[in-house]
Design a protein that fits this description.
Transmembrane segments (chain B): 21-43, 76-98, 110-130, 159-184, 205-230, 269-289
Distance between the termini of chain A: 8 Å
Number of domains of chain B: 1
Subcellular location (chain B): Cell membrane
CATH architecture of chain B: Orthogonal Bundle
Main location (chain B): membrane
Distance between the termini of chain B: 35 Å
Membrane topology (chain B): Multi-pass membrane protein
Number of strands of chain B: 0
Number of helices of chain A: 15
Helix content of chain B: over 70%
CATH topology of the largest domain in chain A: MetI-like fold
Largest sheet of chain A: none
CATH class of chain B: Mainly Alpha
Largest sheet of chain B: none
Number of strands of chain A: 0
CATH topology of chain B: MetI-like fold
Oligomer: heterodimer
Domain ABC transmembrane type-1 (chain B): 73-286
Strand content of chain B: under 5%
Structural class of chain B: mainly alpha
Strand content of chain A: under 5%
Largest interface: A-B, 104 and 101 residues
Order of helices and strands of chain A: HHHHHHHHHHHHHHH
Structural class of chain A: mainly alpha
Radius of gyration of chain A: 24 Å
CATH architecture of the largest domain in chain A: Orthogonal Bundle
């Protein structure tokens, strides 16, 4: 596990660029090939985003006549307005805004609760080991590989017993449970790297479990909290399965509502509105991705060394 | 310790135990309890509500004689093989290209990784639009003069997996590239120097030295990607809803439909147990290699 934390750090170091000097000759045949391939691959990766944005800015007549790759002749923001405020799912025509606010309401408590639980948990696993703690941790990590499908129905029963089935609170709980393996691993690996002397000194000064957590561990590990927030915000925002299974139509998260809008069989297909809606849903994780940069990579690396 | 009374042992380190309570409940009740519950009830004839009425292996007999399940398994198998091999191969090649001390490495990496931040729903819907036969790629190629060009994977049962693969690869290869890049950067620079001194060409060094050295990275990536593929669900829902016909059904969809739509609990649980089994087939050899083999290393 120590190796795992080292690998996370190494990943981040590695992302800060290659070692050694930059090459001097820019236009060798080898370089042309490398850049050529990379440019072509990049094009393949950018194209869907480009098409999505362009389609969302065109009117329907232009879409029917034209080329999906071409920029709009006449830019219109009508599809965005419609997607946000009046696109229909079934009989409801109040747009994606409802799904957006549902997702926000799901997101904030889920992120807070899952990180609170996992950080304290990771801290207990590193500094306050008790009999069986490692065993629970191992089961937790292996549990993250079990297909969710096998746990769906038992969780429905548990939530029903708690009176939380079909409610926001239930979904928050589910996100906290399934976020626990990866987040606990993340915090556990980070806290392992905090010098033990610090912990011992605080113990000598009479600080207890919570005192050390709030006064030493928490302030010292703000970067890893940021990584955890990035990981959770994108993960929970992008969730579809839990939203479908554990909530009801009036509180469906944005992804579920988006799918219902775009894949609804009724009415004429408005591709521009559909793409605007898709773009709106993708915007939150995209913004986080472009702002966070290397921290996002760090979150991924933590996911990769789980187990 | 053993001589102390039980209550003293329990209260020792009490705060830590309280803090770990969510983890203990999650592992014991949700992960272990939930899994065992599902496996047990997969041997019952439960319909709308769970009932302990034993029917032996009947649910599994019915499962494997259901053509929809058969299609689901076949789809998952072929999609899985291609997705696994291609994401890892492409991810590795891209990582190698980015590792050539190039300029704008950050820009390229940002571009290759951004789809990974998007959900499968968003991915599926964008690709559904790109592959729309009347307005998407097929239409563009035809309007450029190649009138007979046909590429409509989402409407062709024989090609639908290719459509899913295009979207799946677009979303997932950036992730593998990132992991592989980290693995490449972890390899000692001296190995490259030694290879150069011996006059070994770069491709040969990758093949004979670097890839074998990165074995653990490959295995970890393999397990993560494979575990993700078995859960494949959102992408199919968004892109094809399992169609055309039943051509792109996957096991996770079967489970969902039987648990929550068809109200045939026993059947859905039997299907989910098969999913668990397939993950264990991937996971157990890996766990054995990773943790069992450590003593010899």
């Amino acid at each position: 596990m120590l190796e795992a934390s080292k690998m996370v750090d190494r990943t981040v170091d590695a992302m800060s660029g290659p070692r050694g000097k930059k090459p001097k000759k820019a236009l060798s045949g080898r370089n042309i090939m490398i850049y050529g391939i990379l440019l072509m691959v990049s094009l393949y990766y950018i194209l869907p985003l480009w098409v999505m944005v362009m389609t969302s800015l065109k009117g329907m007549p232009e879409i029917r006549m034209g080329n999906i790759f071409a920029p709009p002749v006449e830019i219109t923001f009508e599809p965005w307005v419609k997607a946000w405020s009046s696109a229909c799912t079934g009989l409801n025509c109040d747009g994606l805004s409802r799904g957006f606010w549902n997702s926000v309401q799901i997101l904030i408590p889920s992120v807070f609760l899952s990180i609170a639980i996992a950080s304290v948990n990771g801290y207990a696993l590193v500094n306050w080991k008790f009999k069986g703690s490692e065993l629970f941790f191992t089961i937790l990590i292996f549990g993250s590989f079990i297909p969710y499908q096998i746990m769906l129905y038992p969780i429905v029963i548990m939530l029903r017993e708690l009176g939380l089935y079909g409610k926001l609170g239930g979904l928050v709980l589910v996100h906290s449970v399934f976020g626990m393996p990866i987040l606990t691993l993340l915090f556990r690996n980070y806290f392992t790297s905090v010098p033990e002397e610090l912990f011992k000194a605080a113990r000598v000064d009479g600080a207890g479990f919570w005192g050390i957590y709030f006064r030493i561990m928490l302030p010292m590990s703000l970067p890893i909290f940021v990584v955890a927030v990035i990981l959770q915000v994108t993960g929970i925002w992008n969730d579809f399965l839990f939203g479908v299974v554990f909530t009801k139509p009036s509180i469906y998260p944005m992804t579920v509502q988006l799918n219902n809008i775009v894949n609804s069989v009724q009415g004429v297909k408005e591709y521009n509105v559909n793409m605007a809606a898709t773009m709106l849903t993708g915007l939150v994780p995209l913004v986080i991705y472009f702002i966070s940069g290397k921290l996002f990579v760090r979150g991924i690396a933590a996911g990769a060394v789980k187990g | 310790m053993a001589s102390k009374p039980l209550s003293a042992r329990l209260t020792r380190n009490l705060n830590a135990k309280i803090a770990a309570l969510p983890m203990i409940i999650t592992t014991l009740v949700v992960f272990l309890g939930g899994t065992i519950w599902s496996v047990v009830y997969s041997f019952t004839g439960s319909k709308l509500l769970p009932k302990l009425k034993w029917v032996g292996l009947k649910q599994y007999d019915r499962l494997w004689s259901n053509s929809r399940w058969e299609i689901s398994i076949e789809n998952l198998f072929w999609y899985g093989i291609f997705a696994l091999v291609l994401t890892i191969a492409i991810g590795f090649l891209l990582a190698v290209l980015l590792d050539q001390k190039i300029r704008f490495e950050d820009t390229f990496r940002t571009i290759l990784l951004y789809p990974f931040a998007l959900s499968f729903i968003v991915t599926g819907l964008v690709w559904q639009w790109l592959l729309n036969p009347e307005m998407g790629i097929q239409h563009i190629v035809r309007s450029m003069g190649w009138e007979s060009f046909t590429f409509d994977p989402l409407y062709n049962p024989d090609l639908v997996l290719i459509g899913l693969l295009m979207a799946g690869l677009w979303q997932g290869t950036g992730f593998v590239m990132c992991i592989m890049l980290a693995g490449l950067r972890g390899i000692d620079e001296d190995i490259w120097k030694a290879a150069r001194v011996d006059g070994i060409p770069a491709w040969k060094t990758y093949l004979r030295v670097v890839i074998p050295m990165m074995r653990p990275v490959f295995i970890t990536t393999l397990v993560i990607v494979a575990a993700g593929i078995i859960k494949l669900y959102d992408l199919v829902v968004a892109m094809t809803s399992g169609g055309p016909g039943n051509a792109s059904q996957v096991p996770a969809m079967y489970v969902y439909d039987y648990l929550f739509q068809a109200q045939n609990l026993g059947q859905g649980l039997a299907a989910s147990t098969m999913m668990l089994l397939s993950v264990l087939i991937v996971l157990i050899p890996w766990a054995y290699l990773e943790f069992g083999g450590k003593k010899h290393a």
